[in-house]
TrEMBL record:
InterPro entries: Bact_Lucif_Oxidored, Luciferase-like_dom, Luciferase-like_sf. This is LLM class flavin-dependent oxidoreductase. GO terms for cellular component: cytosol. One of its GO terms (molecular function) is oxidoreductase activity, acting on paired donors, with incorporation or reduction of molecular oxygen. Residues 43-344 form the Luciferase-like domain. It comes from the Bacteria. SUPFAM superfamilies: Bacterial luciferase-like. Pfam families: Bac_luciferase. It comes from Siccirubricoccus deserti.
Amino acid sequence: MRFFFFHLMPYAPLDPDYDKIHRSSWVTLPNDYYDPELGAELYNRYLDELEYAAELGFEGIGVNEHHQNAYGLMPCPNVFAGMLARRIPATAKIAILGRALPVLANPLSVAEEFAVLDNVTRGRIITGFVRGIGAEYHSLAVNPTESHARFHEAHDLIVQAWTKPGPFTFEGKYYHFPHVNLWPRVYQEPHPPIWIPSQGSRETIEFAAAPDRRYVYLQTAAPAATLFRTMQGYRDEALRQGYQSSPDQLGWSIKIYVAETDEAARREARPHIESFANKFLRMPQEMLLPPGYTSLASMKGLINSRKTITGGYRTMEQMLEQGTFICGSPQTVIELLAEYQRRGGFNLVMAGLHFGTLPHELTRKNLELFAREVMPALKGAVPGEVPRVAAA
């Protein structure tokens, strides 16, 4: 099992009563809720936590991209990766999970930025490409019905810029470049690893598992039952395409809290994981999944899955039962992660060890206990024979 520390950088001082007036912490929440003085303190604190995780021995640290919300203050993950690149140990990777390609006006700039980071870190960059959840299309005024086509075209442009000798011409439906001639070239050959975080759409799994890509598929924001189905879906798609996938092609992004005992862990985590689920993640369904964003078949599956994520008030007990949160003593967390790995067949864990309003001292404690007690017990763990479930 391989471990990364993932940070969302939420605006923790958010007025918890905002939802008495506003439907969502995304897109339409007035920005006068944001205090720049508090925000400046938060940014520096969160960067400290990411650097500390790298010092503790995580294989890497993860940042991501969201726009116009209190849930995650990272509209430009490449900037954060750049700030971290020279400050973390040379053994740690930086996973940018990921750039929302369809909402970008110029994907070639992403190719350039990643190439710079790849050179500065001497090949420690992991690139993540996503379509972005529906809220990003509302924020940046992009037609969601074009999401898939724009994603594939932007992906192809970036990969060609990394791998084809330049200059060459790129002519697509959405992007037109008479001169693609990347300076600098990427450091890693043939290009930095590409990971595909997703909520579990069928089209994304098929894209990631294609034999000419074999990208890491990272399941996000889903109950354990959905995790098992999507992991099976990836393995089945790989077999259909003529190869057997590796557990290193499969990962899980999951919120985790560790304390000395189960009782202490639940007591300390409760207000902060419930604030994450019920305040920061709050948005109406039409904002999350706007019409045309995905196929009808995938839409049905995502709506059913997301009912357990965004529908109604969610208690910590419900999240633990659904498998959207892991909480307990080191031994409890070890046993749960081992069982989820056995049933899911993944090797990569993107551990969300900060969430919601979790304060700095508890975040450091969580990081330390996880790195000292949990990671050493599971670093050699492999899935073995995975029990079959119905694929997504």
